[in-house]
Amino acid sequence: MTNTIVVTDRLTKRYGDRLAVDHVSLTVRQGEVYGFLGPNGAGKTTTLRMLLGLIRPTSGTASVLGSAPGDPMAVARTGALVEGPGFYPYLSGRDNLRVMARYQQAGDRDVDEALERVDLAARGADAFRSYSLGMKQRLGVASALLGGPDLLILDEPTNGLDPAGMADMRRLIVELAQQGQTVLLSSHLLSEVQEICDRVGVISDGRLLTESTVDDLRGGRSLFVRATPVDRALAVSMQVAGEDAVQLLDDGVNVEVGAERAPELVRALIEADTAVYEVRFSERSLEDVFFEMTSTENSATTEEVV
Amino acid sequence: MRTETRPESPAPSSAPAQPVGRPGAALIASSRAEWLRLRKWPAVWVLVGTWLLLNLTFGYVFNYIAYATDSANFASEGVPPEALLADILPAAVPDIFANGMPMFGGAIVMILGALASGSGYGWGTWKTVLTQGPGRLAAFGGTLAAVAGMVLVVIAATLAVDLGASLLIAAVESQPITWPAWGELALSVGGGTLIMTMWAAAGVLIGVLTRSPAVAIGLGLVWSLVVENLLRGVSGLLDAMSYVTDVMPGTASGSVAGALGQATQADDGGAPGVQTILDGSTATIVVTVYIVVFTVAAAILMRRRDLA
User: Fold this and answer.
1) Do residue A87 and residue B30 have CB atoms under 8 angstroms apart?
2) Searching chain A, which residue's CA lies closest to the CA of residue B137?
3) Is the pLDDT reported for residue A300 higher than 90?
4) Can you tell me the distance from the alpha carbon of A137 to that of A135, in angstroms, rounded to the nearest whole number?
5) How many domains is chain B partitioned into structurally?
6) Structure confidence at residue A220 (pLDDT)
C-alpha cells in the first residue's frame, strides 16, 4: 500500500503562449501538511485545479488518491476550497452546505458538524451574500470538510481572514492533520507555511523550484557576530569555522556554526583583542530562502529565454 | 452490484463497490441538490409568478373584461361576445392552454434555464459542485432534471390557474360547467410541456455557452422575440429562407401551439408566437429534436470544457 496521496509527473498547463504550469512533479504523502508556496500568479491555483479535474493538463500526468484527477472516486474523497468560496448568494450558509451535502450524498448532520467546526453555526441561517469575506472563506472550508475527506486541498485558506481568524484556521488545519487527514495547502504567506507545514513545494513562474521539508529548506543555523575591527573578527571567525563558513555582511559577520560553538568563537575573538558588541543566534526564515531562490531562478529563466 | 464509472480503465474485478461512484445514485443526489437550491431561489418564483400573471391576464382577464363590458380589446375586435365567452369557459381550456407558451412562457422558462446553468460560472458554484464528487455528467444531469421539474411545476400551475379562472367565470356568468374533453386537455398539456421544455433547454444551453446568465438571457430573448420574427419576415420575400425559418425553434414551438388551439397569429385575435406553419406532428418532432440537441450539446460542453 503506497503512502503517497498525490503524485504529479511533469504536469503542464499552457494557455496560448503562456506556460501557467511547467513540468511540475510533486508528491504529497499521507497524513502530512504539504505547503504549496509561491507568489501570486506562480501557478499554484492552476495546479490545484488540475488535481481536482476542473481543468485538463496540457501534458503530464497526475494521480490523486490512486485515481486520475477528476475521477468521481477521487473527488468524493477530496475536500476542496479553490480560488475563493463559490456559493449561492441567495441561500443561507447552512442551505448552501445542505446543497453540497446532497451532491455528496451526505446528511444534514454533517452540515451542522461542519458549521460548528468553522465557528459558523450561529450565523448558519443568514444569507451567504450577507457574510463577511472571512465568513465566506470559513464556509468554503466547511464545505471542504463535508463528508470527512481523506485529502483536503485548500487554496490560500487564510485569505480574507483577520489575524484571529488566521490563527484559528491554522489551528484547524493542524488538528485535521493530527486526525490523519492529508492537507495540501497553497499559500503566499511564508510564515504560515513555516508554522504549519511538514513539507513544502516552492513554485515560481509555473516551475517547481524545490520540494523538501521546511527545516531542510531553511538550512543550517548560524551565528551573527558584530565586532570591531571587522577584518580581524572576520579572520578569527575563519580560523574557528573554516573559510567557507563565514560571510561578511554589511553590519557584521555571519558564521555558519551551531550554537554549541558560540563560547569558543567568542573566546577566540576576545583573545584576538576585538571588541565584541553582539553575538546572536540567527536562523534563516523561509522568506529569506524563498526570495533567494526565486530571484536566482528568475535571472536563470531570463537567460534561458534569451 | 458493481457499476463501471471509468470505461477507459476498468477496475479489477476484485475492486469493491463504490457507492459514490455509481452514476445513477450520483444523478439522483445531484437532482435533489439542485432542486433544493432552485426551489429556494426567489428569482425562480418571481419568474413563475410573472408567467402565471401574464397567462391569467391575457388568457382570461382581458377577454372577460371585453366580454363583460361589451367592448373590443386589441385581440377581440369583431369577435361576437358569445364566442368571446366560450373561449374563457372550462371547455375551452385545451384550446388556449398553450397559446401564450411559444413566446411569453418560452421566454420566461428560457430565462429560468439560463439562470440555472449560467449563474454557476460567475458565482463559482459550478466549481464547488464539481469538487463534491458527483462527476460532471451526473452534476449537470441534476441541473437538467431540476429545471425539467420546475417546468412541470409551471405547467401544473398554469393548468390550475386556467381551470380555476374559467370555473370562476362560468360561475359568475351562471354558465353550465362543461368539462373539457380529457383527451384534448392531455394533448394540450403535453404540447405545452414540450414547448416549455424546449425553451428551458435552450436557456440551459446558452447559459453554458456564454457562461454568464446576463449575456445568455439577453441573447436568448433577442433571438426568440426579435430575430426569429425578422427572419420569418424575410422568408416572406425570399422563398429559400423558408426552409430555414420553418424549422427554427420559435416556428416549431409556435406550430405545436397552433395545432392545439384555434386562433393563430395570422388570424386576427390570435396569441403572438402561435403559428400554423408546420403541422402538429412535424412540429412535435422538430421540437423534440431541439430538446435532445440542446441538452446533448450543453452536456458535451459541460463535460469537455475547462472550468477556469
Assistant:
1) no
2) A72
3) no
4) 5
5) 1
6) 65
Whole-structure pTM over 0.95, yes or no?
no
Q: What is the pLDDT of residue A283?
A: 72
Burial string for B201-214 (b: 16+ CB within 10 Å, else e) reads: bbbbbbbbbbbbbe
CA torsion B87→B88→B89→B90, rounded to 10°? Answer: 100
- Give, in order, the Cα–Cα distances in Å from A260 to each of A16, A252, A281: 55, 20, 10
CA distance A267 to A178: 45
CA distance B66 to B73: 6
- Is the CB of B20 less than 8 angstroms away from the CB of A52? no
SS3 A244: helix
The number of helix segments (H) and strand segments (E) in chain B equals: 14, 0
| Under-70 pLDDT residues of chain B | 1-23, 71-79, 262-270
Nearest to B96 by CA among B277, B287, B275, B260: B260
- State residue B17's pLDDT score: 35
Tell if the CB–CB gap between B124 and A86 is shorter than 8 Å. Answer: yes
Contacts of residue B14, Cβ cutoff 8 Å, sequence gap at least 6: none
Task: Please answer yes or no on whether A76 and B40 come within 8 Å at the CB atom.
Answer: no
Instruction: Copy the grid coordinates of residue B106.
Output: 418560452
Write the single-letter amino acid at A279. V
Per DSSP, the three-state class of B179 is coil
Residues A222 and A240: beta-carbon distance below 8 Å:
no
- A84 at B interface, C-beta within 8 A: yes
Each residue's pLDDT tens digit, A254-263 = 888 877 888 9
The alpha helices in chain A, defined as continuous H runs, are 44-51, 72-76, 93-103, 108-117, 133-145, 163-178, 190-196, 214-218, 230-241, 262-271, 286-305
Asked if residue A5 lies in contact with residue A77, where contact means CB atoms within 8 angstroms, the answer is no
In B121-187, DSSP assigns E strands to none
Which residues in chain B have their CB less than 8 angstroms from residue A73's CB?
5, 18, 20-21, 133
Domain assignment of residue B2, yes or no: no
- The string of pLDDT tens digits covering residues A48-64 is 999 999 999 999 999 99
Task: Assess A75–B contact: CB distance below 8 Å, yes or no.
Answer: yes
Q: Which three-class secondary structure state does DSSP give residue B269?
A: coil
Domains of chain A in sequence order: 4-217 (3.40.50.300), 220-282 (3.30.70.980)
Q: Using a CB–CB cutoff of 8 Å, tell me whether A128 touches chain B.
A: no
* Separation between Cα atoms, residue A5 and residue A181, nearest integer Å: 10
Sequence-distant (≥ 6) Cβ neighbours of residue A303 within 8 angstroms: none
Q: How many CB atoms lie within 10 A of CB B298?
A: 24
* Cα–Cα dist A46/A55, whole Å: 8
Q: Give the residue from A151, A75, A242 showing the smallest Cα distance to B135.
A: A75
Q: Give the ipTM of the model, two decimals please.
A: 0.85
What domain range includes position B54?
A: 22-304
The per-residue pLDDT for A14 is 94
Beta strands in A134-272 (DSSP E): 151-155, 182-187, 199-204, 207-213, 222-228, 246-248, 253-255
**Amino acid letter, B299:** A
**Do A177 and A33 contact (CB within 8 A), yes or no?**
yes
User: Each residue of B114-169: pLDDT tens digit?
Assistant: 999 999 999 999 999 999 988 899 999 999 999 999 999 999 999 999 999 999 99
